[in-house]
């Protein structure tokens, strides 16, 4: 072999044009997702007028996948550079992707319908465990529990027990709201300390995908800006997809009430679901699990804590002492 022969151990690096093209598609998806998500009223009228809601749903799904790609890639790059554990990043991501649930619950409170907010907390946590965790485990095997798992599961267990206990009392308790919000502050502090103490593992020599990723060569502030933009695009794309599906369902003859309930239940869980599917496909199981844990903790401690200050009555369908549906929902929520 002469000195001019290429080394077989040097893997080919991706073409610069391909990297720039992929980055351009990601930026375009973010911009389109934000635009469509912030013009949902006009978008819905347009869909009804030209009857292309099915095609719009496909576009919404595509935008969800592309914007979640941007979000996951830049979050992972931040973790590698700052030495933050993937699960800690996933927890933060879970809190951020729970913003739709927070908006729905706050809107319900302002409209005097705290029962919808309570149902949103309970339903979202049930969906996170039964639906999102189930899909994640189907895509990629989840490793055994470690100390970080045990800490987070213990926090969720205590928070769930506290919130479920007041459901049996028939009304929310403002004093418990103070406790839940205090637990949230303590949990965030403990998670940040644990994440800062966990050094990120070095990239394997054969991990050319991570080494050659364009996100690796960016400064951290740009990774953070891109991750924020990806999250905004993700939420916007989810809103557009829900609007498209709502129009499609009504055009197909489905009851508007059923469509509305499903739109709230599925729409607020779409960001977590999409992020977890992408994270599992990329092998980021710790980030995927952290996303579920962070979402559940945020739903109970933040949203549930705020709801407690309303002292609202618990709907019979969520009260295990009032109805059979209450028993079923409480069991699924606690389990």
Q: Helix segment count?
A: 14
Total strands: the figure is 0
Helicity, as a percent range: over 70%
Structural class, please? mainly alpha
Largest sheet: none
Q: Rounded to an integer, what's the Rg over CA atoms?
A: 22 Å
Q: Quick check: average pLDDT?
A: 74
Overall outline: globular
Ends distance: 64 Å
Report on the structure:
- This protein is an all-alpha fold.
- Helices cover 76% and strands 0% of the residues.
- It contains 14 helices and no strands.
- The longest helix has 32 residues, at 220-251.
- Residues 1-20 and 199-212 have low confidence and may be disordered.
List the helices and strands and how they pair.
Elements: H1 16-37, H2 40-50, H3 53-82, H4 86-97, H5 99-110, H6 114-139, H7 147-167, H8 174-197, H9 208-212, H10 220-251, H11 256-267, H12 270-281, H13 285-308, H14 324-334
Tags for this model:
single chain; 335 residues; mainly alpha; 14 helices; 76% helix; disordered N terminus
Task: Give a nutshell description of this structure.
It is built from 14 helices and no strands. With 335 residues, it is mostly helical.
């Amino acid at each position: 072999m002469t000195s001019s022969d290429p080394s077989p151990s040097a893997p080919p690096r991706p073409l610069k044009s391909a990297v720039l093209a992929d980055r351009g598609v990601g930026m375009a998806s973010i911009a389109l997702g934000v635009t469509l998500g912030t013009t949902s009223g006009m978008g819905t009228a347009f869909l009804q007028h030209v009857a292309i809601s099915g095609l719009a749903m496909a576009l919404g799904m595509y935008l969800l996948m592309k914007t979640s790609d941007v979000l996951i890639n830049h979050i992972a790059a931040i973790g590698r550079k700052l030495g933050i554990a993937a699960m800690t990043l996933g927890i933060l991501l879970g809190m951020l992707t729970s913003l739709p649930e927070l908006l729905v619950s706050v809107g319900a409170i302002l409209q005097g319908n705290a029962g919808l907010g309570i149902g949103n907390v309970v339903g979202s946590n049930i969906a996170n465990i039964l639906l999102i965790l189930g899909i994640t485990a189907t895509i990629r095997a989840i490793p055994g529990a470690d100390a970080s798992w045990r800490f987070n599961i213990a926090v969720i267990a205590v928070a769930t027990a506290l919130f479920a206990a007041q459901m049996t009392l028939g009304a929310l308790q403002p004093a418990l709201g103070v406790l839940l919000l205090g637990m949230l502050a303590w949990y965030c502090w403990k998670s940040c300390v644990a994440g800062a103490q966990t050094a990120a593992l070095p990239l394997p020599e054969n991990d050319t995908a991570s080494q050659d990723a364009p996100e690796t060569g960016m400064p951290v502030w740009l990774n953070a800006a891109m991750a924020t933009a990806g999250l905004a695009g993700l939420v916007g794309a989810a809103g557009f997809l829900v609007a498209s599906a709502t129009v499609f369902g009504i055009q197909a003859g489905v009851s508007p009430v059923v469509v509305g309930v499903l739109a709230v239940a599925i729409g607020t869980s779409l960001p977590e679901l999409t992020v977890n599917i992408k994270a599992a496909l990329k092998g980021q199981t710790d980030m995927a699990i952290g996303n579920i844990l962070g979402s559940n903790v945020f739903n109970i401690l933040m949203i549930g804590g705020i709801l407690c200050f309303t002292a609202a009555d618990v709907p019979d369908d969520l009260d295990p002492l009032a109805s059979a549906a209450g028993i079923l929902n409480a069991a699924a929520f606690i389990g």
